[in-house]
Amino acid sequence: MALRHWLASALVAAACAASSAGAQRSPPAPATPRIYVLENGTINGLDPALFNFRREELEQVDFVNMAYLIVHPRGTLMFDAGAVPDSHFKGDGSPVVEGVVTATKPLLPQLAAAGYEPADVTYFALSHFHSDHTGNANEFANATWIVQKAERDYMFADSPEGIIQPATYAALRNADTKVLNNEDFDVFGDGSVVVMATPGHTPGHQVVAVKLANRGTVVLAGDLYHYPEERTTGRLPTFELDPEQSKVSRARIEQFVEDNDAEIWIEHDIATHAALPKSPRYVD
Question: Is the dihedral of CA 70, 236, 84, 172 positive or negative?
Fold first, then answer.
């Protein structure tokens, strides 16, 4: 009997220790929001004509693929998921080349370096459904997915067309979902992290505005723009779903930037991200 009680106590203690160890995997919540910048390779060899430019009009033609973990005192928001699923990496350090995309770093180890794993992500949002943003979306199906209704409807249509790979986000179909109707969403209720509707590039494209204590307000712009030169010329990609709506969305965000003395992080811009610290460092 005594041995049985001892074994039961030992098992309870071990379970508590394991639970405690699991709870300690994530860092303590920060006092103010911060952004971890995550890399997922480059897109090379693009034709500038796709974006209504000539080569000599652009400082840089190639793209980077980025994603972001926003950590708030009340939870976390993962924004975008890279171009290449982590499962496509061989684990030997070799890059993954898929068409015009070359990736050298899987996404989840960069999260882990900052102390997080997919189970620690409270909310997940995609800027839009294009496959260079959805690579690891299935990893975050246990988070609450924030999505515009028009975008979700397109993603799960019978035969969606365009730059899309439904297999990379299929698990989101059954995720706990916050569906928005062309509207903004204050993620944590204090105005510091806001998903903003910016339709045009796709039916329900969206960006995220983050108020940081030290850096100021940052707009994570998704594909609202692809090149900085688009901001000064007003040019739009040839494959924009609704060019006129994109103009409205851009004007809205530019006004927000002016009103809030904010900066725009163009998600594919090499120069912007070359100057930013990468996980496990962060911007706050």
Answer: positive
